[in-house]
Amino acid sequence: MPVPAKALAAIEYGATERADDARWSAAAATLPHASLYHDIRWRGLIERVFGHRTHYLHATARSGEVVGLLPLVQLKSSLFGNYLVSMPYFNDGGAVAVDAYIEEGLMYEAQVLAQRLNVSHVEFRGTRVRPAQWPVRDDKVTMTLALPDSSEALWKQISAKLRAQIKRPQREGVEVVRGGLELIPEFWRVFAVNMRDLGTPVYPQRFFEELLRSFHESASVVVVRHQGAPAAAALLLGFRNRLEIPWASSLREFNHLSVNMALYWECLRLAIDGGFSLFDFGRCSRDSGTYRFKKQWGAQEQPLYWHYWLRAGGEPPRLNPDNPKYRMAIAAWRKLPLRVTTLLGPHIVKYLP
Questions:
Q1: Which residues contact 351 (CB under 8 A, 6 or more apart)?
Q2: pTM surpassing 0.90?
Q3: pLDDT tens for residues 253-267?
Q4: N or C: which end of the chain has fewer CB within 10 A?
Q5: E strand or H helix at 178
Q6: DSSP state for residue 3 in the 8-state scheme
Q7: Region 158-168: what's the mean pLDDT?
């Protein structure tokens, strides 16, 4: 595919060296479509925890100003292949720039890099549609809720049925706490069990500890306890006007207490208390059970567009639990003891985007 002339005019594309971290951060703070996942701190975090090789591309104007960003992480394993993602583990992180031509120029630079690294494909994640020459998957959405000015207003806004479900755990004497790094062990205990029950490998606890240390000003944890033991937990990340809940889990033995409802209500209250105007419930498939759960809070879907460069052409890859080829592995994983899944899971999941 030829590079559009407008994408090259007066713009230099290159790799971001460590000494350029400050210039990258300045651009990430001002580019209108930048997300939390364009923050330069993810580079070191992903390298430290997962050992992946990263390739951070930028576009520079003649003035020396950084006008475009594209973070890329290389995932390479014998099990799942060799490919680049911007950004793995999250919903966003694709090319952002002062205009669409420079964004496309960055994507072509990624294509050149991909050919040099001999990867099978590049996955560009984001919330905007790219030109037609980039194959796209749009089967996933994220669910967002515009927040009122107070939790009292939100309480009146939700249905009577939902309010009754939120009151249930309060009557059962559950405790809901907010915090940070000190709550990660309780969060991970719930998360690890839930991931095993879903048939999905779990991230290592260290990933979340490093995340809280790196993003202490924008990350928080909510834990719901019953009789002193964690029953549900969530980790939240804030950026600009949006508070996102990328990870939330509850233990099945507490489902009858509606601890999940207490968890999400507290997360929404935290968002309002923090001055956020938008709550992002996270990624799901349309019309799934998770989709309907989020919809009942009044959340609206925002399509996710994951575009691709594919070395061999064909269809975009499906390295996710929805792929039927992983059905037997998922079923087997659910039956494994927790100590096995928490030991093996981190060595597998780091290669899954």
A1: 75, 76, 77, 79, 80
A2: yes
A3: 999 999 999 999 999
A4: N
A5: strand 175-179
A6: P
A7: 95
Whether residue 343 is predicted with pLDDT greater than 90 in this model: the reply is yes
Lookup: tokens for 177: 């706490």
Q: What is the mean pLDDT of residues 235-258?
A: 96
Residues 23, 73 contacting (CB under 8 angstroms): no
Take residue 274 and report the two structure tokens written for it: 């923090």
- The residue written with tokens 């240390």 in the block is 213
For residue 311, the surrounding DSSP H or E stretch is none
Name the nearest CA neighbour of 308 among 140, 143, 77, 126: 126
Confidence bin at 1 (pLDDT 50/70/90):
very low
User: Residue 136: beta bridge partners?
Assistant: 307
What are the beta bridge partners of residue 285? 140
**How is 180-229 classified by DSSP, letter by letter?**
SGGGHHHHHHHHHHHHHHHT-PPPPHHHHHHHHHHTTTTEEEEEEEETTE
- Mean pLDDT for the chain? 93
Cβ atoms of residues 102 and 14 within 8 Å: no
Residue-level length of the chain:
353
